[in-house]
Amino acid sequence: MAKFNKKKDGDVPAVSTASLPDIVFMLLFFFMTVTTMKDSSIMVENTLPNATETKKLEKKDRVIYIYVGKPTSQYTSTFGSEPKIQLNDKFADVGDVGDFILQERAAKPQELQNVLTTALKVDRDANMGLISDIKQELRKVNALKVNYTTTDGDAFANLQ
Amino acid sequence: MRNRANTEVNAGSMADIAFLLLIFFLVTTTIETDAGIDRLLPRIDDTSTIVVRQRNILTVNINNSGALLVEEELLPLEELKDVVIAFLDNGGDGSCDYCKGNREETSSDNPNIAIVSLRSDRQTAYADYIAVQNEITAGYNTLRNREAQRLFGSDYTALEQDYLNPQTGPLQKEQLKAQILQIQELFPLNLSEAETASE
């Protein structure tokens, strides 16, 4: 009899959490594979324009990034609201672009120095004057491969 | 000894550790947008002035409000792609046997010497400039796709994607590269953003 009674007063068994780590690890690996490390915080507004005819930048180690756009709200008091160039973590002038490219190029391994691409991450509201100045500087240091980084989307939406 | 067989390592905190790692990665990483329009800038020491006949140049001007002036006439952006295609595919002097254009007297002789001249104002918004670049590239890609379909039964853009795919083997890559170069030779991207002298 005692044997039967014992079964009745048993509590609801606890939900097993043994598989929880597995689930979380799965999530973790997902994020590790689809994301990349942030190497610099962006201090300019950077809403990229849309384009459809894009090509992917496959190899991250062969890319030098240049950001252009209006300084974000926390920097407007010191740097104004005109579009600025950001190189690494600093605001810079057009004249600094050449030196920056040469510096970045020297830091890369020898075999990659000739195949570097400059990715221009430019805010959609920036004006072309600044961009042509940057392109002129890039030509001076022979950094001729350029990628205008864009988001995928309808290009006609740019006109609004 | 019997008890010992039943003891298990407590794995309850494992989830916490994994969550901690997960949150760390969420905070320190971003999903990067790393696609864009590729362009090759001209060399700076390239000061040679080539004389090009007027009919082989398609002039595209963008003003500061984003309006387009193509061959001295206003044109909506939606029509630019078709104008570019018609211009490149014209084959005016009959030396281009794969061109399917109208062979008009006023348009280009051969896609090899046809130049698209793009000029923008200093006040032009970057978004407008990219939209125009996108449409010009779309024109070239349409023609290149057509030729790639004819020669290799596959789109040019698909060939390029396969070439950039890291999973493609080296042998196949060589083959793809040869095919891509062959197509690029048929419709080379002659985009000029500098002053172009005309006859």
UniProtKB/TrEMBL annotation, chain A:
Q: Name one GO biological process term.
A: protein transport
| Spans through the membrane | 12-32
Record keywords, A-Z: Cell membrane, Membrane, Protein transport, Transmembrane, Transmembrane helix, Transport
Pfam families given in the database record: ExbD
Q: Which InterPro entries match?
A: ExbD
Q: Where is this gene product found?
A: Cell membrane
Annotated GO CC locations = plasma membrane
Alphabetically, the GO molecular function entries are: transmembrane transporter activity
Chief location of this protein within or outside the cell:
membrane
State the membrane topology.
Single-pass membrane protein; Single-pass type II membrane protein
Q: Which family does it belong to?
A: Belongs to the ExbD/TolR family.
Q: What is this protein called?
A: Biopolymer transport protein ExbD
Q: Which organism is it from?
A: Robiginitalea myxolifaciens
TrEMBL record, chain B:
Q: How does it sit in the membrane?
A: Single-pass membrane protein; Single-pass type II membrane protein
Query: What keyword terms does UniProt attach to this protein?
Result: Cell membrane, Membrane, Protein transport, Transmembrane, Transmembrane helix, Transport
Q: What is its main location?
A: membrane
Q: Which residues form a coiled coil?
A: none
Database matches in InterPro entries: ExbD (IPR003400)
Entry's family note: Belongs to the ExbD/TolR family.
Protein name (Swiss-Prot/TrEMBL): Biopolymer transport protein ExbD
Q: Which organism is it from?
A: Robiginitalea myxolifaciens
Q: Please spell out the taxonomic lineage of the organism that makes this protein.
A: Bacteria, Pseudomonadati, Bacteroidota, Flavobacteriia, Flavobacteriales
